[in-house]
Amino acid sequence: QQQVKQSPQSLIVQKGGISIINCAYENTAFDYFPWYQQFPGKGPALLIAIRPDVSEKKEGRFTISFNKSAKQFSLHIMDSQPGDSATYFCAATGAGTALIFGKGTTLSVSS
Amino acid sequence: NAGVMQNPRHLVRRRGQEARLRCSPMKGHSHVYWYRQLPEEGLKFMVYLQKENIIDESGMPKERFSAEFPKEGPSILRIQQVVRGDSAAYFCASSFGPSTSPGELFFGEGSRLTVL
Predict the structure, then answer these.
(1) Do B80 and B67 meet the contact criterion of CB atoms below 8 Å apart?
(2) Closest Cα partner for A77 from A64, A61, A88?
(3) For residues A20-53, b (16+ Cβ closer than 10 Å) or e, as one string?
(4) pLDDT at B99
(5) Which one of A46, A49, A103 has the shortest CB-CB distance to B42?
(6) Which residues of chain B have a pLDDT value below 50?
(7) Which of B84, B83, B8, B68 is closest to B32 using CA atoms?
(8) Is the pLDDT of residue A96 over 60?
(9) Residue of chain A whose alpha carbon sits nearest to that of B57
(10) pLDDT for residue A111
(11) What pLDDT is stored for residue B75 in this prediction?
């Protein structure tokens, strides 16, 4: 399978801080890059997504930054809250491939 | 609840038995995807189906695993002669259109298979 590499594997952030999760992809034909959030015992849920024709997308406290030339994209969570503690997955798709996920980042926001 | 419904939520099987996992997609969705999740390994794509058709099974193990999405009824992921390595959470997702379009995949809450 085409890979999507995600880092870090785990992240601890103080309440109010900024959480940053990075992903890199290989397939230049990918054209849709969503982030999913998963709470323990639940299925993943779409958080925010971006297409490569823009370099940034913001929805509330969540921002995706996209660097097409570097084949990298990242999720920034501003003013992180304990309720943001979850596992975050980046993903990519395009050119007839199914949605491919990174291995996930477990975020813990300490109060 | 109009979400993606998976059952059973938890399934225990002994080695060599068969496991059948069911998935009812969201109303109006005709695209179904199965993913397997192991700790620290993320979500691994297994198979993509539309009604009565397998579109992409590139992630399915060649043996013992099969999937179907009949004209009527839920999608079924079938694992024959289970082994301990099959223990995992299996997630089903559905979408209105194919995942290659900028549409959302809606996930169920998963079926957790434990093989003794």
Answers:
(1) no
(2) A61
(3) bbbbbbebeebbbbbbbbbeeeebbeebbbbebe
(4) 59
(5) A103
(6) none
(7) B68
(8) yes
(9) A98
(10) 86
(11) 97
pLDDT, one tens digit per residue, over A58-91 is 999 999 999 999 999 999 999 999 999 999 999 9
Residue A18 has pLDDT above 80, yes or no: yes
Rg (CA), chain A: 13
Residue with tokens 């809450």: B109
CA B15, B23, A95, A32 torsion-angle sign: negative
Nearest CA in chain A to B58: A1
Strands A105-110 and A10-14: parallel
Q: Distance from CA of residue B16 to its chain's centroid?
A: 20
Q: Is A79 left (phi over 0), alpha (psi -120 to 50) or beta?
A: left
Which two tokens mark B24?
């009812």
pLDDT of res. A2: 57
Name the B residues in 34-93 with CB < 8 Å from any A CB.
35, 40-45, 48, 56, 58-59, 91, 93
A21 touches chain B (CB under 8 A): no
Q: Which of A44, A42, A74, A77 is nearest to A59 (CA)?
A: A77
Predicted local distance difference test score (pLDDT) of residue B41: 81
Calculate how close chain B gets to A66, using CA atoms only, in Å.
16
